[in-house]
Structure formats: C-alpha cells, structure tokens
Design brief:
The structure is a single chain. The protein has 14 helices and 15 strands. It has helices spanning 8-11, 46-53, 56-67, 71-78, 118-122, 158-169, 246-257, 268-279, 287-293, 302-312, 322-337, 353-358, 364-378, 415-420; strands at residues 3-5, 21-23, 31-34, 42-44, 83-84, 107-112, 129-130, 133-140, 146-151, 184-185, 192-195, 240-241, 244-245, 386-388, 394-396. By secondary structure, it is of the alpha+beta class. It is globular. β12 and β13 (244-245) form a beta hairpin.
C-alpha cells in the first residue's frame, strides 16, 4: 500500500510534513486541519489527524508551552499550534469562517479549564455516555484541562448542552460556545484518554430554518445594527486572565453579585450590560472577546446580545471596576488557599518612612511594584554624587526600572508617586 504524506498545504511553513507519513486508506474527511488559527482549514482524514498528533514537533511544542514563564511566551508558542475544526468538515475555499461553513457537523467539543479532572470525567462514562450525551473524545488539553467531544442531541443548542453537561460532571464548562467555524488546538496522541470510532464518522448537522416565534421582546430588526464580528479565534492572547479561566471569573462574579443565580429571561439584558462593563477592563475593551466569553443566558438572541455588549462599551473607560477588583481578590484568596497563588508578593510590614509614604495609597497587590519603581525617580534628586565602579572609574548614579504586567492589573498606581517625586 502506497505511503501518503500529510497535506503540504496544511503544514506549509509550520510542521515538517516529512515527519508524518500515513498509510493510505478508505477513510473520508471528518474534520479540517490548519497549521494555525489563521491558516487555510483543509478537509482531513483520520490518518492525517492522527499523524499530526503523533508528531514529535507537536509534543515538543506542547512541552514548551507548559514550561513557559510568561503569558507573552505562551501566546507566541500557541500561535504555532495546529488546530482542527470538530464542528465542520468543509469550508468554502478552505476559509474558516461562519459564513463559509459548507458541511457543519453535530460534534461539539466542551472545554473544561480546571486542571487535573480528565481521568475523573472518563470515569463517569457509562456505556459510551455521560447522561444523555454520547461521548466521542476525552483528552487533556495543552495545559492539562480537559476537552470532551459529544454528539449534539437533536433539538438542543450548544448553550443548553454546556450548561447540562457542567451539572453532570460537577465542573464549570467554558461558556464560550464554539461556533461551527470554531477550532480546537491539536494535542499529542498521549493526551487522549477516551475515543469513540464515531468521532471519525460524524453526523451532518441539518440546518433547518426555524419558524418565527411570537415574542414581546423587540425583534432584532428593530435593534440598532452593529458591525458583525466574525467569532473566529478571538481568544488568541485572551485564553484566560492571570491564570484564571474566564468561566471561573464569571462564576465567581455570579456568586458574589447575583447570589449565585444566572440571569433569567427578564434580567438577561441588564445583567449582560452590567457584567460587560466590569469585564471590559480586563479584556482590553474588545467587543469580539466579550461576545465570546459572556454567555447568552436564557437563550438571549445573538443580535441583541451583541448590541447590549456594544452599548455597554460606550461607557467611559474607568480602569478596573470595584466589582472586578472584588472578584479578582476573591479568586486570589481562593488560589492561595489551594496553593495556586500567582499574585505579587506583599511588602514588608516595616518600611522606611519615605517608601511608606509613597506607597501609602497603592492597593496591597501593587505596593511592591510602586516601592521598586520609585527608585529611578528618586535618583534624579542625586546631585553631584558619584560612585567608584568595579572598573575603578567614577560614575554618576544611574537608575533604571522596567514594569511589566497584564492589562488592568494596577500598573497605573506608580504614576502619581513618580509625579510627586
């Protein structure tokens, strides 16, 4: 039987196609594979899918991502990962977007961000099902969360499946529903914990035009129109915030400010508006990201969901809001209790008077950054002071400080002390 190479056009400029030789066989395309988020998504077979997952390049890249020290490093490495599209096996001209979906499927991948629960979820599979859901695939994600692929039951929406599946497994499921053009990062074959052969012979999704249902809510035709944002992989670089999954942040927000209850039909509009204002500051005020991470509670129509978020983003930008600070503080305390604290260190209890004064009004989590960064400004007041350096030459004092941090974590608190100096 003649050997076939994985499609060069999938991996061109990325993985070395000569590293993956696959055997020709009768299987037909069941998904699309792309070398990265923005690359062409090419219809691919089981053998081609497995060849990528068996590659040493993918194993090495995933190891680098897990060992990365900074969010920026993770972002750059993830941009090199190949992806596959579980909900579609053919796009027009291989262009991965919702409008170009030609052959949608009933396969739905659910993303569980909490780490270390994959084996636990596999243990819940009984006769190939968890509850009513036929399980097609369970695997560790890149950073050891869980991907669970299920067959989308007839008559159910992805939102409904996510909510019910989360209750069945007792874990939060990422609320960002993967649309038909959505993709999943490829992971090494060793990450696979459960696989159903039906994954490679998926059912086509019948697209039926729903009959209009009378409603007292305003029709989308009467809603102010906003530009349609393609929800392709707008979470690149926004996969989480400071190590906290978006589903975890939203769940904590609901717990603290909505008495642990998700919005219902009568409150979904105002609730979406409020949470948009609070989340915007840690999402770089990007509408596409907010549309993806904020659930459409109570089957909130997509056009109105988009419009509500757009309206909330018209509010003046005020930095991190009171509610969001409370959410992040609560998660920080929770992470510390669980031994996962990634917050900056607190300053010593005793400080020289000047440093205590300069950091007096900064929040606890920014005090160390303020104390370290004021030295460069203080150095400008050294006049006529020279030091004999290791090379035995006299030098004037030179101070330099670099401050790095994610969006909206409080870097601005250094500004006023420096201005005062």
């Amino acid at each position: 039987m003649e050997d076939l190479l994985v499609k060069d056009k999938i991996l061109e400029g990325g993985f070395n196609p000569n590293a993956f030789k696959v055997m020709a066989g009768p299987s037909k395309p069941f998904t699309c594979i792309a070398k990265s988020h923005g690359a062409p998504a090419v219809p691919s077979t089981k053998e081609e899918w497995e060849a990528v997952r068996n590659s040493k390049e993918l194993v090495d890249l995933c190891e680098k991502i897990r060992n990365a020290k900074t969010d920026e490093e993770v972002r750059k490495l993830k941009s090199k990962l190949p992806v596959w599209t579980p909900r579609c096996k053919k796009f027009k001209d291989n262009h991965r977007s919702e409008k170009d979906v030609e052959e949608p499927l009933t396969t739905l991948v659910l993303d569980i961000d909490e780490k270390g629960h994959t084996d636990e979820i596999v243990g819940k599979v009984i006769n190939g099902h968890i509850g009513r859901y036929e399980i097609l695939l369970i695997e560790d994600s890149i950073r050891l969360g869980t991907h669970a692929a299920v067959e989308l039951p007839e008559g159910m929406t992805p939102n409904e499946v996510q909510k019910e599946f989360a209750e069945l497994i007792g874990l939060p499921v990422d609320p960002a529903v993967k649309n038909e053009a959505g993709c999943i990062y490829q992971v090494p074959i060793s990450h696979t914990k459960y696989i159903n052969p039906k994954l490679f012979n998926p059912s086509p999704l019948e697209q039926k035009e729903a009959a209009p249902i009378p409603s007292e809510e305003p029709s989308s035709a009467n809603v102010e129109q906003t530009p349609t944002i393609e929800k392709k992989d707008n979470l690149v670089g926004f996969e989480d915030y400071n190590g906290n999954a978006w589903s975890t942040i939203i769940a904590k927000y609901i717990e603290l400010f909505w008495n642990g209850k998700e919005p219902i039909e009568g409150s979904r509009n105002s609730s979406t508006y409020d949470i948009t204002k609070d989340l915007a500051c840690i999402c770089d005020y990007r509408q596409d990201v907010l549309e993806t991470i904020i659930p459409r509670w109570a089957d909130f129509p997509e056009a109105e969901h988009r419009q509500t978020i757009a309206n909330a983003l018209k509010e003046p930008k005020k930095g991190t809001t009171f509610r969001m600070r409370k959410v992040l503080e609560a998660l920080g305390a929770q992470n510390k209790k669980q031994g996962n604290d990634s917050r900056p260190p607190l300053p010593p209890k005793r400080l020289p008077g000047l440093l205590r004064l300069l950091s007096k009004h900064a929040p606890n989590h920014t005090k160390v950054a303020v104390i370290e960064n004021v030295w460069a400004a203080l150095g400008t007041h050294l006049s006529g002071v020279k030091f004999r350096y290791i090379d035995n030459v006299l030098h004037e004092a030179t101070f330099m400080c670099f401050l790095f941090g994610p969006q909206s974590v409080g870097k601005g608190y250094i500004v006023k002390p420096i201005e005062a100096i």
